[in-house]
Amino acid sequence: RPKFWRYWRTLPAAGTIGLYPGGWYQDLINQYCARKVSRAMLEEGVLRIKAFEHTLAEEGTLIIKLWLHVSKAEHRRQLDGHRKDPLVGFRASDRAWVSPKDYNAYVTAAGHVMRETMDGKTPWFIIEGGDDNYRRATVLGTLRDALRDHLDARRALLKQRQKALKKAAKAAKKQKRKDKGDGANTAPTTPRAKSVSRRVLDT
After folding, report:
1. Which of 113, 143, 159, 174 matches a 20 to 30 Å C-alpha distance to 45?
2. SS3 of 59, please?
3. Any residues with CB less than 8 A from the CB of 39 and at least 6 apart, and which?
């Protein structure tokens, strides 16, 4: 199957919201840090992601990408605390947790991928994730602002298209009246005129 087949199947319908923890980035970065893919394969994956996101953005999809950053020390503290938490401690495998020794490599790889996949239509928002209250407030504020700006832009685009359609319809109606008037003012050719024209041409 195509690389992004599983994401295409689950994309939210128009007017709805979809959440993708880790998104289409986590597997690629994890595999690169685990040395399961080469640098060339990482760059190929980045190009696939950019093409995928640009396709969605061109169709009017709002893409909000959040990176919740924590320091190495905070990451270690959270890792130890979460392992004992029955609500979040379960994972399919130990590799689902990024161990502290992988922290630098993971952040470096993630930083490269974010720089390569960030532009005006598919921006990244980097948020300090160490403090729960700050993280939640910032995430919610970011979502609110992005949704508001997106809806405002879509409304402006819709008004612009409606205005263009009205202008085109008005011009077409005006041209139709003009063509009808020109047809009414054109005198039919009389048989005598045809005869004279024919004799002139024969001579």
Report:
1. 143
2. coil
3. 32
